[in-house]
Amino acid sequence: xxxxxxxxxxxxxxxxxxxxxxxxxxxxxxxxxxxxxxxxxxxxxxxxxxxxxxxxxxxxxxxxxxxxxxxxxxxxxxxxxxxxxxxxxxxxxxxxxxxxxxxxxxxxxxxxxxxxxxxxxxxxxxxxxxxxxxxxxxxxxxxxxxxxxxxxxxxxxxxxxxxxxxxxxxxxxxxxxxxxxxxxxxxxxxxxxxxxxxxxxxxxxxxxxxxxxxxxxxxxxxxxxxxxxxxxxxxxxxxxxxxxxxxxxxxxxxxxxxxxxxxxxxxxxxxxxxxxxxxxxxxxxxxxxxxxxxxxxxxxxxxxxxxxxxxxxxxxxxxxxxxxxxxxxxxxxxxxxxxxxxxxxxxxxxxxxxxxxxxxxxxxxxxxxxxxxxxxxxxxxxxxxxxxxxxxxxxxxxxxxxxxxxxxxxxxxxxxx
Length: 417
Hints:
3-stranded antiparallel beta sheet, 4 domains, 4-stranded antiparallel beta sheet, single chain, alpha+beta, 15% strand, Nucleotidyltransferase, domain 5, disordered C terminus
């Protein structure tokens, strides 16, 4: 008998001797009172054999046929013709050439038991260390997006884009977007800069919105430039250090925030009866205040690291998606299938053949800049033109008759040969 069966015999013996009550014996054996009664009857009739399973010592009904196992091991052994075949290849050859149909997992187990295959080595464990929080607020906001069914089927699925301060654990921004998109991160950067200031650095994952996957061209390598996404460019222009995470564990603090919000925020939205993303975004303002009052911690350094924006900073220049266009001879540029007419001032220089940049803010408004100077513009369709119906009427009128031309035509028609 194995140690467990010996223990069960001792418990039943004490039960029969009156040293244990039925309730205590059933708890020790891990069986119900009804099963205990059956076990006592078998113990009185069979003795120690009552605790031994009936199938012990019997060959399993699904056991692989030993002669077939010996044949497989001979074919896959050091002297066999299949000694260097991998597992899937060996399974196919056994079925095709020898009519041996055997499962892949069973074949793998048999080969390992015979020492013909080695168990896969487990990858070495990664040694990680707990990183202390940054001492001052604004030194390292962590940003990320979390797609989920935030409205629990009452509305569309959405991605919650947010930022949490590393020093305090305070949520500094949240917004619901249909997907984790560029507009959401533009709103994040602009709102944080206006509400708190410019942070020293930002910790994020390797999403292509936040970090360009493109390889530099030869010209960029010679110029010392690296490809940047729009968000990456904004952080570089504002002097924000961009720190990409190399593993999900490195983003542990904001990942734990998502776990908390997916439990707490979803229930808050349900209790508030919210069914649309517009209502949910309005609700986030009050939720963040209550969350920060409950969970935010005081920083070790009371001096904040946020850098306030200059009062005269043009937000539309920095916090926008930017594309470059060349100015045509008529001072127009083509952008997104439209023509935009530039309207420089009378004292401004000509911009023909110059490069201007089109800046699109999160709200969709368009602004044009030459270097950092704003340029007025308007769509070409807004230029006044005669109505199409009037133009057709003018074109349908008969042409005025020129008497001299008519006389020349008549003379040519009736001239004698």
